[in-house]
Design a protein that fits this description.
The structure holds two protein chains of two kinds. In chain A, helix 4 crosses helix 11. Chain A has a single domain, classed as ABC transporter involved in vitamin B12 uptake, BtuC. Chain A has a two-stranded antiparallel ribbon. Chain A has 14 helices and two strands; from the N terminus they run H-H-H-H-E-E-H-H-H-H-H-H-H-H-H-H. The longest helix of chain A is centred in the N-terminal third of the chain and has 35 residues. By secondary structure, chain A is mainly alpha-helical. Chain B folds into two domains: 199 residues, Rossmann fold; 38 residues, no CATH class. In chain B, 37% of the residues lie in helices and 23% in strands. In chain B, a hairpin with a 2-residue loop joins strand 4 and strand 5. In chain B, helix 8 runs parallel beside helix 9. The longest helix of chain B is centred in the last third of the chain and has 18 residues. The radius of gyration of chain B is 20 Å and the shape is globular. Classes of the chains: A mainly alpha, B alpha/beta. The interface between A and B is large, with 36 and 47 residues.
Chain lengths: 355, 320
């Protein structure tokens, strides 16, 4: 209001810079939080010590703790947060549904079911490992592929429903919840048939945990996430066009069907690869993009990188809280994100999600 | 007031001599409303044929015998007309007459069953999507979406067909110029979901103009707008048509608004062109046939006014 009619370009440039600055601050915040988080735990390290350890100038004990336990965990949080948030961000756009995300559409549950089938039935791992973990993954590639198949199956159902006439956003989410319940039941049953079932192995997929990602799995998550981020950054204009409606997007030269199909495919892949190794981490894909939308608006040129940064920050913060709030007990990160996400989800359902 | 009756007549002839029009007249018999309509202005013989292929120069938009049907219903039947750069053309007809369908065919949102559409001599069907986006701009009936996009960003979106990777200063300048022209500059950083209906409609028009299209198609752009905004929108369209040599096609219900701001008129009925030409085609007979309404058309200074008198439902029933 009252900003004058003199120079929209100047005002706009300032506004664009401000948005870029916000994204940069969130990214820097994630980096800072990562350093702090790596210092937290039973063997406390100061941020300075962490940095020294990362640079390889610390004693063997600190180095072992940081490089082998805490760094993979922090990286898992950063990568999975980015992947899930971006996945939710583009799903909300592609399905024209502000309630969409991997979790609310049942795609994560589909991926978990796929992973469970691969591990239990096909023997790509075992649910009764001798280690502390309930699940031991021998062949991460097979698990990824099956998680992806489960996710894609759900996605195809979602796309089919989106195409059906008269499907309101709420109805689509209800169907997603139904599918999520179906797949969760499938996962539990699969595990019952496996062997001496530990309760923890069921919990593994219902409440994701970042603690079990090793370097091998991190490499796969990164190998999937980074190219997909690049893809959506390249399609940022098309995403904007799609936000203006299918017909407008088509008259702006966007191949809407192809974008929607490819986009949903890749967004599901992001969710699948996270779920396969880390379990279901609820609501990050819903909360992080919506927070970013509030702050920097709905321009996908900024929202795509913004969601990536916000998701990383949010998941890392959640995991850090889960690790420290009642230490030495480590709460699964999925439980923490649910505590944040569920209220927002209800809020969005009840009012004002159109904006 | 920007009427070119002589040009119109010549256009009518040019079109009438076209082979397509001839074929269409033969195929549909007396339903060939186009012929009847245009023939009124220019008693051109419909028998003129070979060697009289219409000249391609000058026409911004040439539509030849376009038909479209959904699996069950035929929506458009052999629609033909031509428009010159800088002309504003109203597409008239009652609900379901095929106005929106015609616009969507012109945007390739729908694929015509037969017929040809040429934009500046180039067949629409051969253009690549980004090329088409630089030729034709669209303002849909309902502007949905644009969640949390600023006005500037919403208009900048129209630069998409011109941008390869990054936005350049030239794009920002183009947006700025359009915002100034449409009186939206003071709203540049407002979110579109906070705008009034009239402001939003202008933003969508600004976005379409940012594409720098050669033809601009609008589906009932004045619906749900107050008098002031209706007038403003139509004035913007005419000004942009004149200054940019853009060919503007407006589906519209308000006959008086159409008469005041358009140079050409296409009256559709049941998917066929009932009449086509300058303001003179809007006469009581056409209105009766197209809308089933008795109306007087009065000259008022240099303008024409349509004064509806009442329904003529009985007569229509008897005819059918």
């Amino acid at each position: 209001m009252g900003s004058g009619t003199s120079a929209p370009i100047a005002i706009y440039r300032r506004y664009a810079r401000r948005k870029a600055l916000v994204i940069m601050l969130v990214a820097l915040g994630s980096a800072a939080l990562a350093i702090i988080a790596m210092g937290l735990g039973s063997a406390g390290l100061s941020p300075l010590e962490v940095i020294r350890t990362l640079l390889g100038r610390a004693d063997a004990t600190a180095s072992r703790i940081v490089l082998h336990i805490r760094l993979p965990r922090v990286l898992a949080a950063l990568l999975a947060g980015a992947a899930l948030s971006l996945s939710g961000c583009v799903m909300q756009n592609l399905l024209v549904n502000p309630l969409a995300s991997d979790y609310t559409l049942g795609i994560s549950q589909g991926a978990a079911f796929g992973a469970a089938v691969a591990i239990v039935v096909l023997g790509a791992g075992t649910t009764q490992s001798t280690t502390l973990d309930a699940v031991w993954i021998n062949n991460p590639y097979v698990v990824t592929v099956f998680a992806f198949l489960g996710a894609i199956l759900t996605t195809l159902v979602v796309l089919g429903m989106a195409r059906a006439r008269g499907m309101t956003p709420e109805a689509m989410i209800l169907a997603g919840i139904a599918m999520g319940a179906l797949f969760s039941a499938g996962t539990i049953i699969t595990q019952y048939f496996a062997s001496d079932v530990q309760v923890a192995s069921v919990v593994f997929w219902t409440f994701g945990d970042l603690g079990r990602a090793s370097w091998k799995e991190l490499a796969i998550i990164a190998g999937v996430t980074l190219p997909v981020v690049a893809f959506f950054i390249a399609r940022r204009w098309s995403l904007n066009a799609l936000a203006a409606g299918d017909e407008t997007a088509r008259t702006l030269g966007v191949n809407v069907n192809r974008l929607r199909l490819a986009g949903m495919f890749l967004a599901s892949l992001l969710a699948a690869v996270c779920v396969a190794f880390l379990g279901i981490i609820a609501f990050v894909g819903l909360v992080a993009p919506h927070l970013m939308r509030r702050v920097i608006g709905g321009d996908y040129r900024y929202l795509v990188p913004g969601s990536v940064a916000a998701g990383s920050f949010l998941l890392l913060a959640s995991d850090t809280i889960g690790r420290t709030i009642i230490a030495p007990v480590v709460l699964p990160v999925g439980a923490i994100t649910s505590f944040m996400g569920a209220p927002l989800f209800i809020y969005l359902l009840v009012r004002g999600y159109r904006r | 007031m920007g009427r070119f009756p002589d040009v119109l007549v010549r256009h009518g002839k040019e079109w009438l001599y076209g082979r397509r029009g001839q074929e269409r007249a033969e195929r549909t018999g007396k339903r060939g409303g186009i012929l009847r309509g245009a023939g009124k202005d220019s008693p051109a013989p419909a028998t003129a044929r070979a060697g009289n292929e219409p000249s391609r120069d000058g026409a911004a938009l040439r539509v030849e015998g376009v038909s479209f049907s959904y699996p069950q219903v035929e929506v458009l039947r052999g629609v033909s007309f031509t428009l010159r750069p800088g002309e504003v053309c109203s597409v008239l007809g009652n609900n379901g007459a095929g106005k929106s369908t015609l616009l969507k065919c012109l945007l390739r949102l729908l694929k015509p069953r037969e017929g040809a559409i040429l934009v500046e001599g180039e067949p629409l069907s051969r253009l690549k999507p980004p090329e088409l986006a630089r030729k034709a701009g669209y303002v849909p009936q309902r502007a949905d979406g644009y969640h949390r996009l600023t006005v500037f960003d919403a208009v900048l979106l129209g630069r998409k067909p011109h941008v390869s990777w990054g936005v350049e200063t030239a794009d920002l300048e183009a947006v700025e110029a359009i915002l100034h022209r449409l009186g939206l500059a003071h709203l540049a950083l407002r979110y579109t979901d906070e705008l009034s209906g009239g402001e939003m409609q202008k933003v969508v028009i600004a976005r379409a103009l940012a594409q720098e299209p050669r033809i601009l198609l609008l589906d009932e752009p004045t619906n749900n707008l107050d008098l002031r905004n209706q007038t403003e929108v139509m004035e913007i369209l005419r000004a942009e048509a004149r200054s940019g040599g853009i060919c503007v096609l407006v589906a519209i219900h308000d006959l008086n608004l159409a008469l005041r701001y358009s140079d050409r008129f296409i009256v559709l009925k049941d998917g066929a062109v009932l009449r086509w030409g300058g303001p003179e085609v809007i006469d009581p007979e056409t209105i009766r046939e197209a809308y089933g309404v008795e109306a007087r058309v009065e000259r008022f200074g240099d303008r024409f006014l349509v004064i509806p008198e009442g329904c003529c439902c009985f007569e229509q029933d008897r005819q059918s």
